[in-house]
Design a protein that fits this description.
Chain lengths: 486, 466
């Protein structure tokens, strides 16, 4: 692979590139699903190719190919340089990159059990058993389960001399039960909706989930939601479960801190950000107990945003985003770091595949644990609603106004969970919401959740991001708007 | 190790477009896979070959900041053994890799219980001829795109605005064959220009998409976005509530696009469609008729489905009444209907969906709708639309890039963006007038043929800060 990389970089230099970086990537994926006690999808795929990004005439060009011969790679590199020269026809200013050292390294994400070595029969048997268990519950009309495994090898080389090989193994698994009765469709999922939990781990993730224990619980809750009371419409106290809070972080902190959005580079598609450059170190983003980091290091946990180097050859880092409530940092790359006074990229350039350009992405953007025990948090809440497991999510293109709904809610009265609520939802303005946070549970309740489906960029790229969170409480939140008839 | 097919020069050494393989070369790949599968225990084999050559020029802050090109070809093999089936996919074309892919497919297939619903693969089919490969689009170069982008950015600079957007072009083809003699092939070109013009905190947007790059003029789109951005400054805050709205085609598309899977027979069987218990009833207004028609001149996509069946024209909604669904072969057998050619590639759990929706248009226009509105809102674009209630089909999302107040038949001022929570079923009961159906393109739904719509009592629940 290194020969292909060298060939590409040499060709680019010969054609006039002042900088180049190249990624050969080999991606393998296995998808298993069941529906109503039958196997649904059963597929495996692999893709290998090369993408090269170059600077020529002060502008960027990128080309990719699956033709991994000397001629194919040379043609691809030459095309990237030609595209860069075409970009220069409409460039605004010459690209300047923050300095970075050259690294020669090899890294593999830790795993205990390679999911591709586990017999398919074992994997399917577990899914079918969980599916059957859910289907036993009266009132359940649709049962679904899934597993997804990915193994990604990437060989990165750049014209400053880096040669980095990384291997990542990602696992995902989840189950869901749906119930249609009267004029309502209700659903419960475990351990999270939209495909479950996804982490940078092996098959040990699946084994840790204990699907057979939770299958009947989610099925019974899906059926029970039909007879639950409607979530009221009011301003009140809200407690968010960890996975829902993970998505709240993703949408209302993770995206607004992407420096490419802030600088207008996503204005046509993903949108911009309310976090204009003048807000850095000034904005009171959240209450004093809120601390958020973007941490790609393995020390943070096996998240979907964990790696050793980003796809620009910059080592994984931990960046303070919100410290004691104050806005402290953006996600940057080598091109944008100097615009926020940094002398170095924060290492957040990531690509979906060999045929996509690396762009600024969330790593693991996590809310650091607080001090509360979960039982104490519930006991301390006189009148509130606990919402768990995302059902829908939406936020404006500058990331101010959001609305989320969850699969289930629980009314809390006098420090106790007293009854189930259906169709819960809440909405708000990002900074008002985060400033209303008055309790965060401690590390014992903290989970590094995986969001495997974050879409950004044109052409669209899907990326996995990590979000550590523990259940937390927010005051005076607008509740129930999504189902309002007003 | 013998190569099954030589990959063509992906792109040459200039910034021009790649050439796709000839159809006979695609057929050669399909034949190679079928020949290699014969010496395995596969009882039936199906092969998909997909090739893409796409390029996209992206601009922001009045200059190009990303500019990319890709070429790729994948082979996807589905085998059947003893009533079981599975799929394996690769982009390696040498015979050893193809053999390994066939073996992977067989190994996956063998690992599962028998599938009692699995049908034998279909034999030879006849397809309607659809031609959507335009040489002019295929030949577009990075320089061509850069020149168009520069003109749009120059306009922005002249108007004191900031432009961001994309200009993309490309081509793709797909071939499908199976061991029962079925063979189908299709190729198309695609092009797209999208632009956002920003003036301080105001913005507006225009976009077009076609197989033929000559079907739209990037500069006209730039002018349109620029003029609307100029109007969008000093947005006024209005109270949330129910408003008369005029949805431009892109906004209408991005909402009604969320209905497409509800017309899948499998979605009804699974009881996750909003049409459960509602087929044959007057669900929408009488001015709403929807057809799925891959042959429509404004549509794109292959005239065959994931198993190679010809896509049929299906009348889904007739004057407000949902009349028909689409059926894969498996769903059709379960429902004792004929398949309509809308199945996804097997194996899958979703069955089928109409992918070429065409809404019937009307004789109004956006201008006429504005002129006939005493008080209402003109909506340019919607954003981040998600389903809140799957049975009442309540969708939430935001307006974006140009929301304007209409008073006494005229646009009077820009308005701060709203969040909506709106049932699509209720919305399609409340359509007062329709414009001509056009090929609409947004960001939330795939392209469809949809008219502008004037709708009463559209529910905006909250307002944002810009």
């Amino acid at each position: 692979m290194w020969d292909l990389c060298t060939n590409a970089l040499d060709t680019a230099k010969l054609r006039g590139a002042s900088y180049g970086d190249v990624r050969v990537m080999h991606l393998r994926q296995r998808d298993l699903t069941t529906k109503n006690r039958q196997v649904g999808t059963l597929a495996q795929s692999e893709s290998i190719g090369l993408g090269i990004r170059v600077l020529a005439s002060g502008a960027w060009g990128f080309a990719s190919t699956d033709r991994l011969t000397r001629e194919g790679v040379a043609a691809c590199a030459a095309q990237a340089v030609s595209i860069a020269k075409a970009s220069a026809l409409a460039k605004r200013s010459a690209v300047v990159l923050a300095p970075e050292k050259a690294y020669v390294d090899s890294w593999q994400s830790p795993l205990r059990k390679d999911p591709f070595e586990i017999p398919l029969e074992t994997q399917l048997a577990l899914l079918l058993a969980a599916d059957t268990e859910m289907r036993r519950v009266k009132g359940v009309t649709l049962t679904e389960t899934n597993m997804q495994f990915r193994k990604i090898d990437s060989w990165f080389a750049s014209s400053i001399g880096s040669r980095i090989h990384q291997r990542k193994v990602i696992s995902g698994c989840g189950i869901a039960a749906t119930s249609f009765q009267g004029e309502e469709i209700q659903k419960r999922s475990y351990p999270n909706s939209f495909g479950g939990q996804h982490t940078l781990q092996g098959y040990e993730l699946v084994e840790s989930l204990d699907l057979m224990r939770y299958a009947p619980i989610v099925a019974e809750e899906a059926a029970a939601l039909h007879s639950a009371s409607q979530c009221p419409e009011k301003f009140g106290t809200l407690i968010l479960g960890g996975s829902q809070l993970g998505l709240q972080i993703h949408e209302s902190i993770g995206h607004p801190i992407e420096l490419d959005r802030v600088l207008g580079q996503e204005a046509n598609f993903a949108g911009t950000s309310f976090l204009t450059l003048d807000q850095l170190n000034r904005l009171k983003y959240a209450s004093n107990i809120v601390n958020v980091v973007a941490d790609a290091r393995l020390d943070h946990g096996p998240g979907l945003g964990t790696f050793a180097y980003d796809d620009e050859g910059v080592p994984a880092q931990c960046t303070d985003i919100i410290k004691e409530g104050k806005f402290r940092g953006y996600l940057s790359n080598r091109e944008t770091a100097h615009l926020v006074g940094l002398d170095r990229s924060s290492g957040t350039m990531r690509t979906e595949s060999w045929n996509r350009l690396p762009i600024i992405r969330m790593t693991n953007v996590s809310l650091l644990p607080g001090t509360w025990d979960y039982d104490d948090l519930i006991a301390d809440t006189q009148d509130g609603i606990l919402m768990e497991t995302n059902r829908s999510w939406s936020i404006d293109d500058r990331r101010y106004q959001f609305q989320f709904s969850t699969e289930v809610g629980w009314e809390i009265k006098g420090g106790k969970k007293v009854r189930m609520l259906k169709n819960p939802s809440y909405s708000g303005i990002t900074t008002e919401f985060w400033n209303s946070c008055d309790a965060i549970c401690k590390f014992d309740h903290w989970t590094l959740w995986g969001t495997p489906n974050c879409g950004k960029g044109q052409p669209m790229q899907t990326m996995g991001t990590g979000h550590g969170a523990s259940p937390s409480r927010f005051r005076n939140v607008r509740i129930g708007t999504a189902f309002s008839k007003q | 190790m013998k190569a099954a097919a030589k990959k063509k020069k992906a792109s040459g050494t200039n910034a021009g477009a790649a050439e796709l393989l000839h159809e006979r070369e695609l057929r050669g790949i399909v034949d190679t896979v079928l020949r290699l599968a014969k010496s395995t225990e596969a009882e039936e084999t199906e092969v998909h070959v997909d090739e893409v050559a796409d390029a996209l020029t992206r601009f922001a802050n009045n200059g190009i900041h990303q500019n990319v090109a890709e070429h790729g070809l994948t082979i996807s093999v589905r085998t059947v053994v003893d009533g079981r089936t599975a799929r394996a996919t690769t982009n390696r074309l040498d015979e050893d890799s193809i053999r390994s892919t066939i073996e992977t497919s067989l190994s996956l297939a063998r690992s599962q219980p028998k599938n009692p619903r699995l049908l034998p693969m279909p034999g030879k089919q006849r397809y309607r001829d659809v031609r959507r490969f335009i040489g002019r689009t295929a030949a577009l170069t990075a320089e061509d795109r850069a020149r168009a982008v520069r003109r749009a950015c120059d306009l922005a600079v002249k108007k004191g605005q900031v432009a961001a957007g994309i200009f993309s072009s490309g081509q793709g083809q797909t071939a499908l064959g199976n061991s029962r003699g079925l063979f189908a092939a299709y190729r198309e070109t695609r092009s797209q220009f999208s632009i956002t013009m920003q003036k301080d905190s105001a913005a507006s947007w225009a976009k077009a998409n076609s197989a033929d790059v000559r079907a739209f003029d990037p500069q006209r789109l730039a002018v349109r976005a620029s003029e609307k951005a100029h109007r969008a400054v000093n947005a006024r805050e209005l109270a949330p509530g129910r408003y008369m709205v005029i949805l431009e085609p892109a906004a209408a598309l991005d909402l009604v696009g969320f209905l497409f899977y509800d017309f899948a027979a499998t979605a009804l069987e699974d009881k996750r469609s909003c049409l459960n218990e509602r087929m044959g009833k007057q669900l929408f207004g009488k001015n709403i008729s929807i057809t799925d028609d891959v042959s429509h001149p404004l549509q794109q996509g292959a005239p065959f489905d994931g198993e190679g069946l010809p896509r049929q024209r299906v009348l889904l909604v007739d004057r407000g009444i949902p009349r028909n669904l689409v059926y894969s072969r498996v769903a059709a057998k379960a429902a004792r209907k004929e398949p309509t050619g809308h199945g996804f590639a097997l194996p899958n759990e979703y069955g089928e969906a109409p992918m070429n929706l065409v809404f019937a248009g009307g004789d109004s226009s956006v201008d006429k709708m504005i002129a006939s509105t005493e008080r209402g809102l003109l909506v340019t674009r919607l954003w981040y639309i998600r389903e809140v209630d799957p049975y009442e089909k309540v969708m939430t999302g935001m307006t974006r890039d140009g929301l304007f107040l209409i008073e006494n038949g005229r646009l009077t001022t820009a308005v701060r963006n709203f969040r909506f929570n709106q049932s699509l079923i209720e919305m399609l009961k409340n359509v007062e007038s329709l414009g001509p159906a056009v090929r609409a393109t947004g960001e939330e739904a795939f392209e469809m043929v949809v008219p502008a719509m004037k709708i009463r009592d559209f529910h905006f629940s909250e307002v944002t800060k810009f």
